[in-house]
Amino acid sequence: QVQLVESGGGLVQPGGSLRLSCAASGFSFSTYAMRWYRQAPGKERELVAGISSTGSNTWYTDSVKGRFTISRDNAKNTMYLQVNSLKPDDTATYYCNAVNIVYWGQGTQVTVSS
To answer: Is 41 left (phi over 0), alpha (psi -120 to 50) or beta?
Structure first.
């Protein structure tokens, strides 16, 4: 069955960095576009970044452009989100998702605080 396992979150100070990972299984990972979402307490889930199946095309929401980088390794069935220059507003649970597959993992918590 489909499984997406996010990891790499943590508590960081403003300006810090993290590398989030999304390990995928149960479907043909290399044929699916993938996305990262985040949800802050009391807010709706927000689309943060997307990547095509081959990794050749990427997309970012305006608030993270220049700070976040999405990538994937199809040989490892894994997607990544490098998050740099973190701000308190980036505090959220981060989720990965395969486009057109209705499945959500447990997410990974990112907390940005001094």
So the answer is: beta
